[in-house]
Every structure is written in C-alpha cells, then in structure tokens.
Design brief:
alpha/beta; two-stranded parallel sheet; 11 helices; 11 strands
Length: about 280
C-alpha cells in the first residue's frame, strides 16, 4: 500500500529539517512542520513538538504515516526521550521513519546510535542517514562559522585529518527520497561530499571565496574538550572532542557515492557551497 498521508518533520526549523521540509513541499507532499513553538514554513502545517514534553506527541503524529527524526541537540542520551516517541509513532500508524544520525556514530554506538539500533525493530520501512560533518558548520550558526566571522579562525583538535564534508542540501535531498520513494532504503546511508578536505583546506577555500584571511588553529584534545565544555555539558563536550581526535586519526577520510546513487546527481563541493553562502561576506563592512 503506497504512503500517501502526512510527513511529520521533527526539527523543521533546523539545518536539515528546514531543507527537507522545503523539498517535500515543493514536490507536493503534505508536511507537518514540528518545533517547540511550532514551525512556520510556507506550505506546511505547523505543530508544536518538544522531545521533553510527551503531551506534544499525539497532535504531532495525528494522520502522519512517515516521520523525519532530528534528535534533540546536545543530549548525550537521546534514546531516553526518542524511543517512547517512536513506540507511540508506530502505534499511531507511522510506517516509515528516517533518522538523522552521524557518520561518526555507528549502530549501537553512543548517543543516537542506540536509536539507530532500535529503529529496524520498530518500523518495517526505515532509513538512518549518517552524514559526515556539515559544510554549513562554516557558513551558518555553528561555532566554527561564528569564529570565522569574528576572528578569522577555525579551532579543532582534528589536526591534519580529512573529512568528507557534506552539504545540508544534499542531506535533505537524500532524506526526501528516503521518505517518499516507493521502496524505502531499510539500511543506514553514509553521506559525504565529493572530496575529503582538511580544516586547513577549508580555511584556504573560505579565504579565497570571501577575500578575508581565515586560518585553522589546531588544539589538543583536552583544549578542545574544555573549550566546548564552557558552552555545553561536559559529557557531550567530551564526545565531540573525541570525534575530532578520531578525525585526526583518519576516521572520516572517505567519500561515498550515496548522494549520487539516491538522488541521481553528484553532491555539491565545498567551494560551490561557500560561494553560494559566503560570498555576501565579501561585501560586508
């Protein structure tokens, strides 16, 4: 039986949720945009949703047969709030679930890895998107983008390690296919851009595109952990600093064909994304 109901997009104001919702709406699908204050997106039905308020689950799920899941940000144990919701979603008639995870977190790994492990047992149709680090980390509201704008610096504990940075637009395109194609992926999908780049490479490209000097300043694992812990819980800061250390050891030095295979077009390169999203900085005072 084809899926023809409403698609619930959790995190519909976020980096991938907003793009996924927009692509679904443009393709003519009914979308319910979920956020803590309701997500006002043209063409979508806004609904209030809070991972930490189960009273919001029922209205969000009414009439939905598919759901795009963005875990709660900064929570080192998202399964505690996500799994009760997913059980309720299945009981409410959701047939397909697409989860946003990370290339750095395997099934049964820490944090969202536990949700990944549970998903196939809850839904007959499912996918776990495991994107590499976002290109938008250097153009949007991420700490790297802030430090680029303020100080012309990117600080990491990744050393010279390389990452297959991926465009959030490409993640959204894969998500839209995973939610709407006749056959669901029923697997996890590692998403990257077309090229693995070091943070020094990223700094050089941002410098060339914007005309403003940007450098990569390497930190130790401990320095990175403590810097992050000034703004987020220590447990989560420790995990993120550990991911940087894994990058330094080569864990993210890879590219995949997933975007091309799922969407039928190649993924965007970082230079094209930087030109699209950072060129206005050249004219800024």
């Amino acid at each position: 039986m084809p899926l023809t109901g409403t698609i619930l997009v959790v995190g519909a104001t976020g980096t991938t949720g907003s793009r996924t919702a927009a692509q679904l709406i443009a393709a003519g699908h009914r979308v319910r945009a979920a956020g803590r204050r309701g997500a006002s997106l043209p063409g979508a039905e806004p609904v209030r949703f809070d991972w930490y308020d189960p009273a919001t689950f029922g209205d969000a799920l009414t009439g939905a047969d598919r759901v795009y899941l963005v875990p709660p940000i900064g929570d080192s144990d998202p399964a505690a709030v996500m799994l009760p919701f997913l059980h309720q979603a299945r009981a409410a008639g959701v047939r397909r679930a697409v989860l946003l995870s990370s290339s750095a977190i395997a099934e049964s790994g820490p944090a969202v890895g536990m949700v990944h492990q549970a998903l196939p047992g809850l839904f007959d149709e499912w996918a776990v998107l495991r994107p590499s680090w976002f290109m938008q980390n250097f153009t949007g509201a991420h700490a790297h983008a802030d430090s680029i704008r303020k100080d012309g610096v990117i600080m990491t504990a990744a050393g010279t390690g390389r990452v297959g940075f991926v465009d959030a637009d490409d993640i959204a395109a894969v998500a839209a296919h995973a939610l709407t194609d006749d056959h669901s992926p029923d697997t996890d999908l590692v998403l990257t851009g077309p090229q693995a780049l070091s943070y020094d490479d990223i700094a050089a490209i941002v410098t060339e595109v914007t005309g403003r000097p940007v450098v990569h300043r390497p930190l130790s694992y401990e320095q990175m952990r403590d810097r992050l812990a000034a703004a987020i819980p220590l447990e989560f800061a420790t995990m993120l600093a550990g991911m940087d250390r894994a990058i330094a050891e080569g864990a993210e030095n890879r590219v995949t064909d997933t975007v091309q295979r799922i969407t039928g077009r190649p993924p965007h390169g970082f230079r094209s994304v930087a030109e699209r999203e950072l060129l206005p900085l050249r004219a800024a005072p």
